[in-house]
Amino acid sequence: MRWGFVRQLSSLQLKPQGPLQPTTTINDHRETILLYRALLRQCTYLPDSAARKYIWSHVVHRFHAYYTRVKLEDGRTLVRKRKLLDEERLSGALKDARKSLKYLQRANDGHTQNLRTVLDMTYGRVGKRRRQLMFQLQAPDPLIDDASVAILSAQVSQHFNTKRVPELTDELAALLKSQIKQDSARFDKAPLRELAPKVPAVNIWQRKFPAKRRDNFIRAWYAKTLDRLMPPLKAAEWERLQGLAAGTIRWDGPVSRRKPGTSNAKVSYDAIHRVALGDLPYRLTSSTHRVVEKKQHPETVSRPHELTPRFMRRIWTTVFAKCPRLDYNHERKNWDVTWGNVRRQAELVFDSQKELSPHLFDGVDEYGEIRQVSVEPLPHAMDEEQPQLVS
Question: Which helix (H) or strand (E) holds 272?
């Protein structure tokens, strides 16, 4: 379900292939508008302000992708023109929109996995923003002198008809070296283990490894490495996420929701009536206090959680652990990588109004170990001197 939500939002934009006939009806148009408004409404309920802005713009961009700006003959105005969709592709797009709406509803209800995926999309751990951040790191290093230009020109002229073999930039190399040293448990994908591709010298016939296969081997390793690498965040965004995870930046709390109308109230009363009759198994969410139907396998359904500051700090800490930061060191002339890590210290909580007992730490030495107290044995009754009888 985690990666399905990313694919659903990405699949809302479909490019038409060939001439299509308009088969949209009034009901389809009305459902599209209702889904669009419902998605935007759920975006405003997200507990993170950055997530509200990003997911809102993402939904708007995906829906507006079905429209295009057409320039008139006079060249003075621009109008919107609807792209034509066939019935099959329109039903598929509406189905993906419904799934995305349910996913956002579960995230706002406090389901941990759904909310974490939404925040991963916001901070570029998965989805479109991650690809945009990775594309910025893949740009080649700027050429400084004419010698580099001559070397590059010779390489291009020598391999003019072949594809360019990708190479890691200085930022990607520093990021890859640092991520290999990190604990793989904080990442969702398989860990990285190699700093460079290990190309075999000979093939299975003990002949020299072909150059074309070597280039394809390097491209496959490069694509697999970029798919598992975590792109860095900017300094301002990284510090803000650090403050939210550590609790130094105060969370504004959950967004107040719109009051349900009479139609929604009827549905909830009907559900409660079915629960009272025993026809419907139910669970009551702590954040919205509404009756929700269970699936056939309740053990696979995640439980909702109340959106509290402590719960949000745990979610932000998990996302922050996957966010690196790149800073250029001018003295060593290389890149320093800093990973998100929030250290928490245990605090002794006691009532300041009451005085502590002076005998609280009796029997414990300065190192916290229990002192060994020597106990003398009690005298036995037979060992005592017996009184002598006077004859």
Answer: helix 262-277
**What one-character DSSP code corresponds to residue 56?**
H
Buried residues in 150-171 as b, exposed as e (16+ CB within 10 A) = eeeeeeeeeeeeeeeebebeeb
The DSSP call for residue 204 is T
Q: Which amino acid is at 330?
A: H
- Alpha helices by DSSP H, listed for the chain, are 2-10, 26-43, 49-64, 87-109, 112-122, 128-137, 146-158, 170-181, 211-228, 235-246, 262-277, 309-320
Residue type, 17: Q
Residue 237: which residues within 8 A CB-CB, separation 6 or more?
50, 123
- Bridge-based pairing of strands 282-284 and 78-82 is unpaired
Distance CA 7, CA 96 (A): 9
Q: What is the DSSP string of 363-377?
A: TB-TTSPBP----PP
**Rounded Cα distance, 321 and 342, in Å:** 8
Q: How do residues 333-348 score in pLDDT, each as one tens digit?
A: 999 999 998 765 444 4
pLDDT digits (tens, 9 = 90+) for 116-149: 999 999 999 999 999 999 998 886 655 455 666 6
* pTM strictly above 0.70: no
Is 281:272 a contact under the CB 8 Å cutoff? Answer: no
What SS3 class is residue 338?
strand
Cα–Cα distances (Å) from 277 to 130, 194, 282, 353, in that order, read: 49, 61, 12, 52
For the chain, where are the E strands, in sequence order? Answer: 67-71, 78-82, 282-284, 291-293, 324-329, 334-339
SS3 157: helix
- Tokens representing 243 are 């403050």
Please name the amino acid found at residue 157.
S
Q: How far apart are CA 199 and CA 286, in angstroms?
A: 55
Distance CA 228, CA 154 (A): 33
d(CA 307, CA 292): 18
